[in-house]
UniProtKB/TrEMBL annotation:
CDD domains: DEXHc_LHR-like
UniProt domain Helicase C-terminal: residue ranges: 257-402
PROSITE patterns: DEAH_ATP_HELICASE, HELICASE_ATP_BIND_1, HELICASE_CTER
Assigned protein family: Belongs to the Lhr helicase family. Lhr-Core subfamily.
UniProt-listed GO biological process terms: DNA repair
UniProt-recorded name of the protein: DEAD/H associated domain-containing protein
GO molecular function: ATP binding; ATP hydrolysis activity; catalytic activity, acting on DNA; DNA binding; helicase activity
Record keywords, A-Z: ATP-binding, DNA damage, DNA repair, DNA-binding, Helicase, Hydrolase, Isomerase, Nucleotide-binding
DNA damage listed as a keyword: yes
Organism whose genome encodes this protein: Halococcus hamelinensis 100A6
Stored InterPro entries: ATP-dep_Helicase (IPR052511), DEAD/DEAH_box_helicase_dom (IPR011545), DNA/RNA_helicase_DEAH_CS (IPR002464), Helicase_ATP-bd (IPR014001), Helicase_C-like (IPR001650), Lhr-like (IPR017170), Lhr-like_DEAD/DEAH_assoc (IPR013701), Lhr_WH_dom (IPR045628)
Pfam families: DEAD (PF00270), DEAD_assoc (PF08494), Helicase_C (PF00271), WHD_Lhr (PF19306)
Length: 945
């Protein structure tokens, strides 16, 4: 920075009035921070702005000092400024931080959110504060209240904290229209956005202001990072710890590395990518009596506040946390951040490590602890990209139709009646909806009218409130899908422990089963579906079944996976030219922030790949490796592109063969379980022969039979008012729902949302174009390779020992033995009987004809029996009949063992055959394989058929 610029920056506080400058002196703010130097002058001048700077560099004051300056001494009845945060916990923090300024400047600061008492709300309506800290959803409710509308008419400033978080969600899309509704009420107001990381500031600025122009004031975050990537080396101590933790030495080394780093620093945040990892590591830390707490979104509010306060007070040295701690909740000073396993995205690394070292002269210090080769290479790529400032762009929800429906109802609530034209103009002023067509808008209005959410008078171009408008709008203040959760309560104390997702409860949570929450072990005593409550009691067992949280895996972006592919490319060439592993490791450690041991461990499968003579998959080379019934497409394209490409392959191969194709993906591989006879050339044929422009159509057709679309359709239908409540309409089957809503805006939005959140249509088309044009090479290999096989463990987090605890296996065994199965003779087709698995003989046979060709089916599978007995069968009955004969073949060959495997949750004949075929030393391993398959089913059932 030139001297004149530095001098101008240091004079930033001179742009503020005397009263604010006096308060600054009393607060000890003598010198502005870098974001304050850059942002205060334009913000004090009333300009809209986006402030991007690391957490802890005074962003809140950067935004609020000019706002306070504008408000101080003004006479007004209503609210002068809104401070909008995405989390209620941030509301609490902001209130604490802003109160002091309010007292000094004679301004009233208050908070309002969903838990604010009715009495307090009434007080705010009668005597509005000068500054109100609130959430996006609460603003929606406030816009419809008569007294509050009067209070909001004085708003002249809106500050949106963590704007990147809102820009990438439907909550944010809803807020942008909400701000336009506020604009109708109050006139123009200053808009200020705050964030620690933004990949595309220009787009987020337009999101914030509706494209009206926005000053971007960005402080470089990447250059302030001091992050190292390392894989813990197993020591003699880890062998001892493994016994104490009931784990393998690998996991013991990870826990020991966390312990050592926490000990070396005064206060450490340990970020993990999933809640189950937080719980599992927390239980191990608890076993070692380490002063480390657990913090994630499924813990009760009281439990979260308890550990936040303990960490802030120094009673805890570390906090194991998920994204719940990314958004700047105040837990005091943080010296160091540990990221356990790759953070998956540059933005997450910057958000998380940026929480450490909150001083203008200090770097943010962090360590990424990795667990396997892909994990290490991915983390290295992310660290390099972070230093370069290559942050992922915000995935704005453009044109989400259920958001439009929600906000049309909001506008009708605001005005009582409003012209359709005016509502359309209001909605399309918001940046995510600028391209919404009049036809799409009209379809949404008609859908709302058909659902009796509002009255539509097409002749007069008028929308009016109906009897259902109020109830609909307040039931849909939030765009977060309403999914049922179960409260977890301690039987002895009645204390709330946390929550479990409904899907986990349905699939796994039966009486007697164990799981981890708050880093402690619990055994389920009772599941109360009426009260949505799981009653538990604590146990001392150090291992157990970890909750299968609904929270989806953080997707690795295509550019990150591509850089991993680039590294594979030059490493492969180095090994092929005869360089030693130590020399290549030294080169990798020189290029990236890691040590030679970690680099060497990451190179292991790559060195083996070259030694085996196998082609190296890179960012420009797809390697299709295949053996009978099993194909791995090595593709360095990231999660969503591989998900999309895998779905195209699965759909087209299934169509060609008439059989289902199993699919599992990670950022670097697409694994396919294919019918007999399908091999590498068939995969290559699909990759070369699929037209890029057909990807969306292929995917949409394949979605028609998937649970993903039906589940999403139910959620979207609820936000359109087509269903009063998805949970309350379970008996209205999903297939019927699909048929009823096909060719409606509800269906269009459900498909759009799946495309937006889970898939990557355009990048997949680019990959296929690259293959067609020769820019991406496709190579076939007739056996599985070290790199391809390495993906088998990539999705498994190191949470528990390879051999699950004996009590877990006993629970699985007991549960399956108590399950009931429908036995059906396929020879005479006369005999069928439902009985407990434990009562099934070693070799079932028909009491009528003596045949051993007995199908073992789920007890509710009467339609399968009907399908087998039908003279003429439709396609679905043919499929059911085929599965019944596959199951009978297994039972005929393997007797009761096949019945047990088929009784497991989500295990069909194909997977049961794979489980049975494995060679084992004891029966426990058989049940471990069943448990592994059940867990895989629980993770993937929401997306696949």
């Amino acid at each position: 920075m030139a001297e004149s610029e530095a001098a101008g920056g240091s004079a930033a506080f001179t742009h503020l009035g005397t009263q604010v400058r006096t308060a600054l002196s009393e607060r000890g703010f003598e010198t502005p921070t870098e974001p304050q130097r850059a942002a205060i002058p334009p913000l004090a001048d009333g300009k809209d702005g986006l402030v991007i700077a690391p957490t802890g560099t005074g962003k809140t004051e950067t935004a609020m000092l000019p706002v306070f300056d504008a408000l101080a001494g003004e006479e007004r009845f209503g609210i002068g400024a809104l401070y909008i945060t995405p989390l209620r916990a941030l509301n609490r923090d902001m209130r604490d931080r802003l109160d002091w300024w309010g007292e000094q400047l004679g301004l009233d600061i208050d908070v309002r959110h969903g838990d604010t008492t009715q009495y307090h709300r009434q007080q705010q309506a009668n005597d509005p504060p000068d500054v109100l800290v609130t959430t996006p959803e609460t603003l929606q409710a406030m816009l419809t209240g008569e007294k509050l509308r009067k209070a909001l008419s004085d708003v002249s400033h809106v500050v949106i904290d963590e704007v990147h978080e809102l820009a990438a969600s439907k909550r944010g899309a809803q807020l942008t229209i909400g701000l336009e509704r506020l604009h109708e009420l109050s006139g123009p107001f200053q808009r200020i956005g705050l964030s620690a990381t933004v990949g595309d500031p220009g787009e987020v600025g337009k999101f914030l202001t509706g494209g009206r122009g926005c000053e971007i004031m960005e402080v470089d975050v990447g250059s302030r990072l001091d992050v190292r990537v390392r894989e813990p080396r197993i020591t003699d101590e880890d062998e001892t710890l493994a016994g104490k933790l009931a784990s393998d030495p690998d996991l013991a080394s990870h826990v020991r590395a966390i312990r050592d780093l926490v000990t070396e620093n005064e206060s450490t945040l340990v970020f993990v990518n999933t809640r189950q990892t937080a719980e599992a590591l927390g239980s191990r830390c608890n076993a070692l009596d380490l002063p480390i707490g657990v913090h994630h979104g499924s813990l009760s509010k009281e439990a979260r506040i308890e550990v936040e306060d303990a960490f802030k007070a120094g009673e805890l040295d570390g906090l194991l946390c998920t994204s719940s701690m990314e958004l700047g909740i105040d837990v005091g000073r943080v010296d160091h951040v540990i990221q356990y396993q790759s953070p998956r995205e540059v933005a997450r690394l910057l958000q998380r490590v940026g929480r450490a070292g909150h001083r203008s002269d200090k770097l943010s210090s962090g360590t990424v602890l990795t667990t396997r080769p892909d994990d290490t290479l991915e983390a290295l790529a992310i660290c390099r990209r972070a230093h370069e400032g290559l942050v992922e762009p915000a995935e704005i929800h453009h044109g989400s139709l259920d958001t439009v429906a929600n906000q049309i109802a909001g506008a009708v609530m605001d005005f009582g009646e409003i012209s359709a034209r005016k509502t359309y103009d209001l909605v399309t002023r918001a940046y995510p909806f600028r391209d919404l067509t009049a036809d799409d808008f009209r379809d949404v209005v008609r859908e709302l009218s058909d659902n009796r959410i509002l009255w539509l008078d097409e002749e007069l171009d008028r929308l009016e409130k109906s009897g259902g408008t109020w109830q609909y709008f307040y039931a849909n203040l939030s765009m977060i899908p309403d999914e049922e959760t179960y409260t977890v309560s301690d039987v002895a104390s009645g204390r709330a422990i946390g929550t479990l997702d409904e899907r986990f409860v349905v699939n796994f949570a039966g009486p007697g089963e164990t799981f981890i929450q708050r880093g402690e072990m619990w055994r389920i005593a009772e599941v109360d579906d009426e009260e949505s409550e799981v009653k538990v009691s604590p146990i001392e067992d150090p291992t157990g079944e970890v909750p299968s949280w609904t929270g989806s895996e953080i997707p690795v972006p295509k550019p990150v996976a591509g850089e991993v592919g680039e590294v594979r490319g030059w490493v492969g060439e180095a090994f092929e030219s005869g360089e030693s592993r130590s020399a290549v490791a030294a080169d990798l450690a020189d290029r990236y922030p890691t040590d030679e041991y970690t680099a060497g461990e990451a190179l292991d499968p790559l060195e083996k790949q070259v030694e085996s003579g196998s082609p190296m998959p890179t960012d420009e080379r797809v390697v299709v490796e295949y053996e009978p019934r099993s194909v791995v497409v090595n593709a360095c394209f990231g999660h969503t592109t591989n998900q999309t490409l895998g779905r195209v392959l699965s759909a087209l191969l299934g169509q060609q063969t008439g059989s289902s194709v199993g699919l599992e993906i990670d950022p670097y591989r697409i694994e396919l379980d294919v019918p007999r006879g399908v091999s590498g050339p068939d995969i290559e044929g699909v990759l070369r022969g699929t037209e890029p422009e057909h990807v969306a159509g292929i995917i949409e057709l394949s979605l028609k039979n998937s649970d993903a679309l039906k589940f999403k359709l139910a959620q979207v239908a609820a936000t359109f008012g087509a269903l009063q409540s998805w949970r309350g309409n379970r008996k209205f089957g999903r297939d019927r729902l699909l048929a009823a809503l096909d060719d409606t805006p509800v269906y269009d939005e459900a498909v759009r949302e799946i495309f937006h959140e889970d898939l990557a249509i355009e990048p997949t088309g680019e990959v296929l174009s690259g293959i067609r044009d020769g820019e991406v090479e496709v190579v076939l290999h007739t056996e599985h390779t070290p790199v391809g096989i390495d993906g088998r463990s990539s999705g498994r987090e190191l949470l528990a020992p390879e051999n699950a605890d004996a009590s877990v296996i006993d629970t699985v065994r007991e549960r399956i033995q108590e399950d009931r199965m429908l036995l059906f003779c396929l020879h005479c087709q006369e005999w069928d009987r439902t009985q407990e698995v434990r009562r099934v003989p070693d070799q079932p046979e028909c009491p009528f004809c003596g045949s051993t060709r007995i199908a073992a089916l789920n007890p509710w599978a009467e339609e399968v029996v009907e399908a087998v007995r039908a003279d003429e069968k439709d396609d679905e009955q043919e499929k059911q009949t085929k599965r019944a004969y596959q199951a009978a073949t297994l039972v005929q060959s393997h007797g009761k063992q096949a019945v047990i495997a088929l009784a497991a949750r989500g295990v069909g004949p194909h997977n049961a055959a794979r489980i049975i075929a494995k060679l084992r030393e004891d029966e426990d391993d058989f049940y471990r394989d069943i448990l592994s398959q059940e867990r895989q089913y629980a993770r993937t059932q929401s997306f696949w058929d």
